[in-house]
Amino acid sequence: MGKASNAYDVVVIGGGPCGLAVALSLAKNGLSVAIIERGSYNQKRVGEHLPASALGVLQELGVPAALVDDKEHLHCAGVVSWWGNDNFPHSVNYFFHPFGHGVNLSRPKFDRAFADYVRRMGVVIFDHAKIQKSSQNTGSWHIDIADGKNNDHLQALFIIDASGKSASFSRMQGSRIVTFESQLAVIRYYTTCALPLSNRENHVVIESCDIGWWYFAPLSGGNCVCMLVTDPDLIDLRKHTIDMSWHSRLEKTRAIAQLVHPFTTASDISVCSARTQRLNRFHGEGWLTIGDAAMAFDPLSSHGITKGLRHGWMAGKAISHYIRGDNFAIRRFCQDLEQIFAEYLSTRAGYYATEQRWADSLFWRRRHCFDQQQH
User: Fold this and answer.
1) Are 97 and 52 in contact (CB under 8 A)?
2) Residue 358 lies in a domain
3) Domain co-membership, 190 together with 325
């Protein structure tokens, strides 16, 4: 196939919630935007919990409330954490928030609905697309992409890297990923709940253990997700023994095992990085990094999707100002990112410091030593 030429004000690399949010923000500010998404909106994506505060960000973006309604997604009453003691859990109740609830998303339903809405707002999405080549010349970016069937040539005044933890475009521009630990998430999805969920079971539940911590989130349709966050050298992840490792660790939990027990069908276990990381440089001439590409948080923060949406909303405003002549808008935005990351490290340190029951455990020794270095 030949090449077609398409000119945009901004090209966004990555069509997850962060990329969609920034594209939507830019489009509503009158800019032409295209997204290059390497996958589609049909594959399973990790991350489901939106705290009540995230609904405010969606509202600021003008996203219709129907995208997170309780027909497709599960309203969540709050977070219960068994952390720091054996006697009683700590609770965060969303009832007292203006929205009154959080949402546990069914993905990829949310991603598809969000992408369809962004398209209706005038954003072009190239899915199944990969960048073949990019270059900058006289203030414009030139990007060749291919989706397996067609080749396209895009031009843009500005590029946003929302490619996730790989930060693929930013690293091509010379940015470097700085990591803070090597932890990972071991994840399993369950279906077919044999019992109706009680009011207590529409909470996200977190429970610490000697090698890390567990996470449970009920989902719509009688489904749930369960996750263990640990370090790669603390659990046997070999293919023929990973199920045994999972079950033996799960049965030792106080709350999580009871919550998972009514679910009768389990998916294969998947493993992904859950480490804290950031780029040493967030921007350069004509480009900016946002979301997990800029900084990835420990899932304990429960801010993965929320951070992406907020970064997208903030970056959309900053880039709109920049393109219209405010030369310091990107620099101010990056200063905000630096402050966000510093506050995250401080909050994370405080939360891990409250768990002292396994002082001799390697997982907790590592967190406590790292946290002390932050102060």
Assistant:
1) yes
2) no
3) no
On whether residue 132 sits in a domain, the answer given is yes
For the question of whether the overall pTM of this predicted structure is more than 0.90, the answer is yes
pLDDT in tens, the chain (375 residues): 344 469 999 999 999 999 999 999 999 999 999 999 999 888 877 788 999 989 999 999 999 988 988 788 999 999 999 999 888 899 989 888 888 899 999 888 999 999 999 999 999 999 999 999 999 998 899 999 998 788 999 999 999 999 999 999 999 999 999 999 999 999 999 988 766 665 455 899 999 999 999 999 999 888 999 999 999 999 999 988 999 999 999 999 999 999 999 998 889 999 999 999 999 999 999 999 999 999 999 999 877 899 999 999 999 999 999 999 999 999 999 999 999 999 999 999 999 999 999 989 999 999 998 655 554
Total domains in the chain come to 2
Q: At what angle do helices 304-323 and 17-28 cross, to 10 degrees?
A: 30
Rg (CA), the chain: 21
Say which CATH number the domain at 235 has.
3.30.9.100
Residue 370 and residue 181: Cα distance in Å, rounded?
9
CA distance 331 to 319: 10
Show the domain range for 324.
Answer: 3-47+107-180+276-341
Spatial distance between the Cα atoms of 107 and 45, rounded to a whole number of angstroms? 6
Same domain, 157 and 33: yes
Beta strand 124-126 with 33-36 is parallel
